Amino acid sequence: MRIPRLYVDQPLASGADCPLDRRALDHAVKVLRLRAGDPLCLFNGQGGEFSAVLARGGDGALLAQVGEFTPDRRESPLSVRLVQGISRGERMDYTLQKAVELGVTDIVPVVTERTVLRLAGERAERRLAHWRGVILAACEQSGRTRVPAVAEPRALSEYLAGHSADPVAGAGLLLDWAAPDALTDLGALTGPVSVLIGPEGGLAAAERQAALAAGYRPVRLGPRILRTETAAVVALAVLQALAGDLGGRQGGAGADR
Predict the structure, then answer these.
(1) What's the per-residue H, E or C state across 141-206?
(2) pLDDT tens digits for 42-80?
(3) Pairing, β 62-70 against β 17-19
(4) Are strands 171-175 and 217-219 parallel, antiparallel or unpaired?
(5) What is the DSSP letter of 246?
(6) DSSP 3-state assignment of 208?
(7) CA nearest neighbour of 197 among 71, 99, 55
(8) pLDDT of residue 248
(9) pTM of this prediction?
(10) Which end of the chain is less packed: N or C, by CB atoms within 10 Å?
(11) C-alpha radius of gyration, the chain, whole number
(12) Do the Cβ atoms of 113 and 89 come closer than 8 Å?
């Protein structure tokens, strides 16, 4: 039986009691249907995870009794950033969820000329909080022990202007179905790498030129034009295969709760 995993935003230590915040408690009780005495696994995004048991404290409130620590064993050796043109609703959620499952390091949502969803002010804050929730849930499901950061949405032009000065951006790859080189032609990767994917409708010609001027290399995924959410999944899977990440034995299909 697969032991449920919970993200907690606090320090963890073997032998200590860990009070659960509202999100973790609701997920444990209302979604996972856990009760006092049930085993679970805790992680705080700092690497590694702890075994734990759900218990009741002196005041009767549920908490986690923290057990043995297990170091990282599921994180990718490749540092890969997804620079994703913002898509609508469930498409963006799907992209974020699958990117986490495929080991992405961080995600930068960008607004482009053809971005349909426009975000500003309070609406942008709500959307960002929602995306972070999607990412945390995907980490809990997939076994990730480090939580990928998701940046505040920004204009693509603004992001490209700072790409060369960003020490963790690495080599830039621009997905372009008409590119002369295939992503699979890159050979072994040591990273870090950033992959730029346009929204529905793709990037405008001026945006592609700006990406090339910023040092992005155009690569294609195959002979067909993929939807934005499909392109992200395929590109990240290929990159992780090139980096040797898909040869691990910990994962597997049918792992959803």
Answers:
(1) HHCCCCCCEECCCEEHHHHHHHHCCCCCCCEEEEECCCCCCEHHHHCCCCCCEEEEECCCCCCCHH
(2) 999 999 999 999 999 877 788 999 999 999 788 999 999
(3) antiparallel
(4) parallel
(5) G
(6) helix
(7) 99
(8) 58
(9) 0.89
(10) N
(11) 20
(12) no
